[in-house]
Write a structure and sequence with these properties.
Strand order of the largest sheet: 3-2-1-4-5-6-7-8
Largest sheet: 8 strands, mixed
Number of helices: 12
Pathway: Lipid metabolism; fatty acid beta-oxidation
Bound molecules: nicotinamide-adenine-dinucleotide
Strand content: 5-15%
Order of helices and strands: EHEHHEHEHEHEEHEHHHHH
Shape: globular
Organism: Empedobacter falsenii
Structural class: alpha/beta
Pfam families: 3HCDH (PF00725), 3HCDH_N (PF02737)
Enzyme class: oxidoreductase
EC number: 1.1.1.35
Distance between the termini: 53 Å
């Protein structure tokens, strides 16, 4: 299977990045969302994104003009998928919305179309039966700021065919991703299976007053050679996401450390709008965080 026409469903935070990246690499891309108003907003965001491609990838005006020419928009699902070889789903992280979307999609997509979900926290097997084509369904997970953090985690569910898996891995490479095959379903894929425990351990050390933020980061950076420590990473991910994960764990387990972590993040960071890089301050102050200073690791 080779893909040429790609439909991206959902033009939110990740969807519009996926659409732009795919168009940048020469595919015909149709962006689908619930109405034309939302699609108009996506078009405006593409102009901002183009600036990041210039800055970070040294993209030329010609490349960006070609990218825009490869993008089409349609709020009618049947029309948006009528020629699609591949549909990438980036609709909200809500199981009911996703199920409703796949039920609708299954009715209108041509038999050839392969479906890929970008869900971060749900498994493809949760949706496989609603796609009407479980063998042609797989997860393709991107990271935020896809043009820079170019992981393409391709994860099978038990019913995914090898042909689908291999074709989507190949596609991920063709759009500039480092294609990462994941043979078995794993909540959090590889990246979050590694990252969530690290960040959680760092927060636990801090709220239990074992060490302060900078010492924990320094330890990680010096000991492993990593360019940033767990609290620096938390600022990039966003304190709100960390709070949501810890609050959920606290409510579920009543673990005293998790309860302390959730309260600390809420009172000292969220309530003070210190949400990380996005608001200019989190555990560090931006644009020049302390861990970039020459003497930080001394
Ligand atoms: P978002 O809320 O920013 O965007 C969702 C988009 O889907 C919106 O434009 C919305 O109008 C649209 N939408 C709503 N209902 C729809 C429907 N029925 N059909 C089509 N479009 C619909 O969400 P997001 O952050 O872009 O996340 C989308 C998916 O990507 C989620 O599964 C999420 O787990 C995953 N993801 C997000 C990130 C991230 O950093 N935000 C990273 C990796 C993966």
């Amino acid at each position: 299977m080779t893909f040429k026409n790609v439909t991206v469903a959902g033009s939110g935070v990740l969807g519009y990045q996926i659409a732009f990246q795919t168009a940048f690499y020469g595919f015909n891309v149709t962006v689908y969302d619930i109405n034309d108003e939302v699609l108009e907003k996506a078009k405006a965001k593409f102009d901002i994104l183009a600036e990041s491609y210039k800055k970070d990838l040294k993209a030329t005006e010609e490349q960006l003009a070609a990218t825009k020419a490869n993008l089409q928009y349609n709020s009618n699902l049947a029309e948006a998928v009528q020629d699609a070889d591949l549909l990438i789903e980036a609709v909200p992280e809500n199981p009911q919305i996703k199920i409703g979307f796949y039920e609708q999609l299954a009715k209108v997509a041509p038999a050839k179309t392969v479906f890929a979900t970008n869900s971060s926290t749900m498994l493809p097997s949760q949706f496989a039966e609603y796609t009407g084509r479980p063998a042609q369904f797989v997860a393709l997970h991107f990271a935020n700021e896809i043009w820079k953090h170019n992981t393409g985690e391709v994860m099978k569910h038990p019913g995914t065919s090898d042909e689908t898996f291999n074709s989507v891995l190949e596609f991920a490479k063709q759009i500039g991703m480092v294609a990462l095959p994941i043979y078995k379903e794993q909540p959090g894929y590889i990246v979050n299976s590694l990252l969530v425990p690290l960040l959680s351990a760092a927060l636990d050390l801090y709220v239990n007053e074992v060490a302060d933020v900078e010492t924990i980061d320094k330890t990680w950076m010096v000991a492993t050679g990593a360019p940033v420590g767990p609290f620096g990473i938390l600022d990039v991910v966003g304190v709100t996401t960390a709070y949501n994960i810890n609050k959920m764990a606290a409510d579920k387990t009543q673990n005293p450390t998790k309860i302390k972590v959730a309260a600390m993040l809420k009172e000292n960071y969220i309530d003070k709008n210190k949400l990380g890089v996005a608001t200019g301050e989190g555990f560090y102050k931006y644009p020049n965080p302390a861990y970039w200073e020459k003497n930080f690791l001394k």
